[in-house]
Amino acid sequence: MLELYYKDRAFDLELAKNDARLILDEKKEAKTEKNRQRRHRQNKQKKINEQEIAVLKQKNKDLIDKLSLSNPKEKEVSMDIEDKEDTDKTKNKTTHKDKKKDTETKNTKTNKNCKRWKKKFQAKPLQKPYSSKAEQSIVTPRLPSPTYPFK
Question: What segment(s) does the record annotate as region Disordered (predicted)?
Answer without folding.
Answer: 24-151
